[in-house]
Automatic annotation (TrEMBL):
Residues 1-26 form the signal peptide. Residues 28-327 form the Plant heme peroxidase family profile domain. It holds the Pfam family peroxidase. It catalyses: 2 a phenolic donor + H2O2 = 2 a phenolic radical donor + 2 H2O. It comes from Populus tomentosa (Chinese white poplar). Binds 1 heme b (iron(II)-protoporphyrin IX) group per subunit. This is peroxidase. The active site is at H69 (proton acceptor). Ca(2+) 2 binds at T196, D246, D254. GO terms for biological process: hydrogen peroxide catabolic process; response to oxidative stress. Its cofactor is heme b; Ca(2+). Heme b binds at H195.
Length: 327
């Protein structure tokens, strides 16, 4: 009789275990994926990255951007890391990716992992972990990164050229591009907040300043006083100068971005575009008004969500020995 009573209890407990396992393994990824095969993997990533970020905090922005650019093309499969060959121009050489930097950091992390656990940790997982830790190291939120991604074998420059969200994009295009990857309008508003760190090149805002409609005019959505400041830094034809995305705190991950955008001082057209949609505008104004009361948690949630885009798991893809070349 006791055994008969015990059986339903055990059944329910097992059912709960399998249910929870299913939640952590959604999409083929899971927390602590490397625990059994390379238990120090995340520690190695963190320690190696810290050696770089502690010397140069400006590396955090391009490393975060690299993860974005990877996930939006073919999913989070490390394809942005592959180098071009004689027969193929890779994503890395597409115009939007030519300003990416930090590939040496990813290579250093991969090298450290290969010494400890050869052939185990994927380059795509390294990108996800590095993006998380880079944000954390400059004052941003921490989030749990489900791992288990495998690396893709295909990288095509034209896919990055035409499919990456552009700094020139309007709100309609941005919403379409985010929707195509399974991300929501809120995710668009939240992930745009990544522009709280980093820099932009004058070439990307030249039209906004000097020839917005082809008549030698300035973008009317840009605050005139801010436009005047930018013109002092970005002279016509200037292709080398850079400006801060978040003036005054571009090396720190904070909520200032939304205050800037709300004041019509977003650097790119894609930043200003957030004011052209009711949902994104409300989010910008809310974060600006409340000093980013929910931004840290929102950003963490959206980064986890983005990290699931188009992942390769199981026997798909491969674990690259070197991140720049397929095995």
């Amino acid at each position: 009789m006791a055994v008969q009573k015990l059986f339903p209890v055990l059944f329910l407990q097992l059912a709960l275990v399998f249910f929870l396992a299913g939640l952590t393994n959604a999409g083929g990824l899971q927390l602590g994926f490397y625990q059994g095969v390379c238990p120090d993997a995340e520690l190695i990533v963190h320690q190696t990255l810290y050696r770089y970020i502690s010397r140069d905090r400006t590396l955090a922005a391009p490393l975060l951007r690299m993860h974005f650019h990877d996930c939006f093309i073919r999913g989070c499969d490390g394809s942005v890391l592959l180098s071009s060959t004689k027969k193929n121009q890779a994503e890395k050489d597409a115009i939007p990716n030519q300003t990416l930097r930090g590939f040496n950091v990813i290579d250093a992390v991969k090298s450290a992992l290969e010494k400890k656990c050869p052939g185990v940790v994927s380059c795509s997982d390294i990108l996800a972990l590095v993006a998380r830790d880079a944000v954390l190291m400059i004052g941003g939120p921490r989030w749990d990164v489900p791992t288990g991604r495998r690396d893709g074998r295909v990288s095509i420059a034209n896919e990055a050229l035409f499919n990456l969200p552009s700094p020139f994009a309007n709100i309609t295009v941005l919403k379409q591009q985010f929707s195509a990857t399974g991300l929501s309008v809120k995710d668009l508003a939240v992930l745009s907040g990544g522009h709280t760190i980093g820099i932009g090149h004058c070439t990307l805002i030249s039209n906004r300043l000097y020839n917005f409609t082809g008549k030698g005019d300035t973008d009317p959505s840009l605050d005139p006083r801010y436009a005047a400041q930018l013109k002092k830094k970005c002279k016509p034809g200037n292709s080398n100068t850079v400006v801060e995305m978040d003036p005054g705190s571009f090396k720190s991950f904070d909520e200032d971005y939304y205050t800037i955008v709300a004041k019509r001082r977003g650097l790119f057209q894609s930043d200003s575009a957030l004011l052209d949609d009711a949902e994104t505008r409300d989010y910008v104004r809310f974060q600006s008004r409340t000093q980013g009361s929910s931004f840290a948690q929102d950003f963490a949630d959206s980064m986890v969500k983005m990290g699931y885009i188009g992942v390769l798991t199981g026997k798909q893809g491969e674990i690259r020995k070197r991140c720049a070349v397929v095995n």
